[in-house]
Amino acid sequence: MWGGRFAGGPAKVMEKINASIDFDKRFHAQDIRGSKAHADMLAAQDILTSADAAAINEGLDAILREIDDGAFQFSAALEDIHMNVENRLRELIGPTAGRLHTGRSRNDQVATDFKLWVRDTIDRLDLVFRDLIVALLDQAETHAASVMPGFTHMQVAQPVTFGHHMMAYVEMFGRDRDRLAESRRRLNESPLGSAALAGTSFPINRDMTAAALGFDRPTANSLDAVSDRDFALDFLHTANVAAMHLSRLAEELVIWSSAQFRFVTLSDAFSTGSSIMPQKRNPDAAELIKGKIGRVSGAYVALTMVMKGLPMAYGKDMQEDKETLFDAADTIELCVTVMAGMIADMTPNPDALQAAATSGVPTAPELAAGLVAAPALPLRDAHHRAGAAVKAAEDRGCDLADLPLDLLQGIEPRITEAVYKVLDAESAVHARRSYGGTAPEQVRAQIARWREVLK
Ligand code: ARG
Fewer Cβ within 10 Å of end Cβ, the chain: N or C? Predict the structure, then answer.
């Protein structure tokens, strides 16, 4: 491609470090889409004849078919997808192919292709996140009133409902979708026509190519346009936060599906057995989701390192923006899809949830709140009395609700029989009616709101 100046070819290892075709062929469809939009614009601006533009478009369509059919011969000597496509175009339509690159450079071309690829990926990911949210909503609906222990510090804290717990993840993945949408909105400016770094002297129409490729507008500074990878970092940040959410849920599934908890049973479709321990039903998918987050975080760090200290404008360093992002995108898409399947398939066990909700004195806060309400004790005193009751229950090895009334009255004489209603996990949950609280009516209101949002 630069034979005019160079007499000798590159060293073998130079070709190895320099070529990106092995990975950037992944956005061949976006590359061809961009080139077709560019050719149409050149023709509309009378920079190309319409006959040349038609030949170029036909050639590009043929190349797309060849690649999709696996018939295309990729060449490392041609470095990257852009030059592989252009070279093949020359083989197919002759020297006219050389007119396609008028008013652009590989620098704005690769930025355009990569943006289009990330945008397509965001659109696909949004749908899988939606499936996951629907699966969580369905479980939340079925178990809006199933009582379970809520934890802080992994210690039993207060009773909540399983539906409420599911809805916490709905909020998280809902924010992930927001972040995807926000990344997409910010990404959506077309670099095409920024050329190598300074723009071009050809009378191109950047609004036209921007519109043809579904961008909101062209980028406003050519230097920034060819050297900006913020959109890739935005995407990776979003993927990173989502992977962290997935990994938290995955860890809960590992704990919940253990013999000690039995809160849920994972389906056969998402469990594995053991070759030597027949009793085992391993939550491998959940563990793998946790294990895979490192790849997504790693990609974010890797790209940050590529971009830091990069002087304007394009630098070949930036070719390192692709492989780790592709891997992160594949990883997050796989993990969300698997999680959606696991959640849709899992069977919560209301009996185990209920039993766990009553052991470990999770209604002590109810007792304290009750003492604030009826005898109108200051909260700190009420907490103190409730603490004494917890101690008594611990000494006897029983639940709060099993303590005899006279013992409780020894701690606080104004306690009456009514206290036992308060100590019941079910009524504790129903009492937490504050907006966003765990009462089944609140959980159902949030489910309804989310169903509306998803319409
Ligand atoms: N393969 C290159 C990349 O991915 C395309 C841009 C090359 N531009 C250049 N001036 N060498 O970054």
Answer: C
